[in-house]
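Structure first, sequence second, as always.
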C-alpha cells in the first residue's frame, strides 16, 4: 500500500543566469515522500518521468514503476 505524505515541486530556469520562477516552463523535478508498507521513503522524479500537472494516481503509478525497477535490478 502506498500513501502519499508530501509532494514538492522543484523549479530551475532553463536559461543560465536568469532568475527562476514557479511556472510550468521552469519545472525541473518533483520530490515525493510516501509511506510504503509502513516505511517512509523519498522519491525524486525528473520532468520527463512525471509531468508538472500530475494527479495523485499518476504519482502513485510513478512510484510503483520505480519500485518495480528496483526489484528487477
Amino acid at each position: 500500500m502506498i500513501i502519499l505524505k508530501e509532494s514538492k515541486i522543484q523549479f530551475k530556469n532553463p536559461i543560465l543566469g536568469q532568475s527562476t520562477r514557479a511556472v510550468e516552463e521552469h519545472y525541473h523535478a518533483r520530490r515525493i515522500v510516501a509511506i510504503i508498507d509502513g516505511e517512509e521513503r523519498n522519491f525524486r522524479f525528473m520532468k520527463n518521468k512525471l509531468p508538472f500537472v500530475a494527479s495523485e494516481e499518476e504519482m502513485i503509478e510513478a512510484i510503483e514503476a520505480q519500485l518495480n525497477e528496483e526489484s528487477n535490478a
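Margin note: The longest strand covers residues 2-11.
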